[in-house]
Design a protein that fits this description.
The chain is an all-alpha fold. It has twelve helices and no strands. Helices cover 75% and strands 0% of the residues.
Length: 264
Amino acid sequence: MNFIQALILAVIEGITEYLPISSTGHMILASSFMGIASDPFVKFFTVAIQLGAILSVVVLYFKRFFRSLDFYFKLFVAFIPSAIFGVLFSDAIDSLLENPIGVALALVLGGVILLFADQWFNRPIIDDSDEIDYLRAFKIGFFQCIAMIPGVSRSGATIIGGMSQRLSRKAAAEFSFFLAVPTMFAATAKKGYDYYKEGLVLNEEQIKLLAIGNVVAFIVAMLAIKFFIDYLTKYGFRLFGWYRIIVGGAILALWFAGYKLQVV
């Protein structure tokens, strides 16, 4: 992977991580189109630069992370389901990461759901994520498990999960952002452990690419979060739903036309 490819992936990570369009799906597709998806370092890179995106949430919502211990307890409760599922089904999840067609199908199906989400969940009673109780947090955590399927979108699943628990769009989106911090940190730590367990060591050039990737992902993610919260509050999910359907449909069309995306 060269500098330009690393930059492209970092920008994609920053834009897509907190939007309900699946960052993992876009990273898989982008690295596949560039012909670098089979490189072990690329697979590590696409996960490791999530740290930059994580930091963007901490910076933007700095005061929320130091308001009370109750905040952390709720995040932990919401994190438990995905932690258990991640350990139990890690091999199955890894195999799904190598299937671009599965990503495309998940993008389309998720897009259809987003088209109707605003109609289905239109009676919120909670407008502040601090008002979420432990049971609601736990239930939202189960929605995050669905996002282990590449192309589903972690943010999309947890926001919909929050809205199903009578949260407003804004409150659901903010809780989704907060929940991303422990979830993405754990995923990055596990990927790093697996990388070194296989005897792979980062060289100087790869360390530089990781540093650049995290900085770019951090900056772009901050801009994306600000845009998304404002847009979602005013207009809802339909734009993102149509985007997912178009992208997923285009990938399927290319596949059936004979263009094969090679991931492994």
